[in-house]
Amino acid sequence: MNFFKLISEKGLEQLVFCNDDSVGLKAIIAVHNTLLGPALAPIRIKNYSSETDAVSDAVNMAKHMTYRAAIADCDLGGASAVIWGDPETGKSEALFRAFGRFIERFSDQLYVVMGVGTNASDLHNIKRETSKVLAQSTSHGGIADPTEITGDSIIYGLKATAKALTGKADLEGVSCLIQGVGNIGSIIVRKLTEAGAIISVTDTNYDRIKEVQDLNPEITMISPEETYKYKCDIIVPCAPPPIKIEKKHISKLKCKAIAGPSAFIISDLKIADELHKEGILCMPHFVMDSGEAIQADYELKGIQTARLEHAIKNTYRTMRNIQDEAVKSDESPMRTALRKAQHRLTSIGNIGRRNAW
Description:
This protein is of the alpha/beta class. It contains twelve helices and eleven strands.
C-alpha cells in the first residue's frame, strides 16, 4: 500500500502507526481534519484480516468523524484510532496504557472516546497515561453516560425520519428492523420499545439476540440475509453488518428508510443516490450518531449536563432541516448533510485568508 498516496487521496493530515511488542500493541491513528479544533477519535479494537483492512477502517472512520463534528456544531476535528486485536481475548491494562502513551504524544491535538469493541474500563486504563480522554460515564468523571447520550441522539434522528415518512414525529407503530444488537443496538431496542415501535432484530451473534428477546418476547428475529426483502418502515443499522446494500439489492428492498448510527450498510454515497431515486430515504448516520461527539465537545469546554441535553434534542431539528433541504434539492439527505458539513469546514478554513495580489 502506498501510504503517501492514500494520505493525499483521502485528504488526511496524519497517519500514525503505533507498535509495542512488549504488550502486543499494533494500532493505527488517522487524523483527517483539524480545521474546527483538536481531532476526536473513537477507539476501535478489532481482529482485522489484514493491515490494509485496518488502515481502511481507520481512514474511513476519521473522515466520518470530521463530518460528525462539523454538522453537530462542535469545535472538534475528525480522527480515528484502531487497535488490531481480539476484543474478547486481546485486551489488557498494559495494552491500553501503552496506547495511552502514544495518545499523549499528540499533546492537545487529539482526544479519544469509546468506539466499537472498547468500554469504560479500557478508556480508564488509557487515562492513566493521558488526560486526553473524553465522553466517559459519570462514574469515570464524565458529565453523562455516553452510550445513553448516543442512544438519545439516534432516537431523535429516528423521530425526524418518522416525521418525513408519516408526517408525525412519533415512533409509536413505526416498524423498525435493528441490525446489530450490541451495546448501542440494545439501547436502541429499549428506547424504541418505550416509544411503542414495532421491532425486529438481526445479528450474527445469536446470544445477543437471545438476551434481547428474553427482555422483549414480542420482538421478531430474522436472519441477516432476510434484510434485503424484509418489509418494514426503517432499517436501523447499529453495527458493521455482515451484508451491504449494493445497487443490485435496491430493487428488492421493502423498507421506506435507512436510518441509524452505522455507515457500513451502504458501500458509498452513490448507493444513497440510488436509494433516493427509488424513493427510499437514506438518512445521514453521522448526524444521528453525534451524541458522543457533542458530549466530548461540551466536556472540553466545561459546559454542564443541562445544556448537553438541549444540544442532543437539537439533533431532531438538524435532521429535519437536512431533510427539508434535500426535498427542495431533490437529492438524498446523505448528500445534503455532507454538503452542509463541508460548507462549515470551508467557511472556518477560510478565516484570515487574503489574496496574494
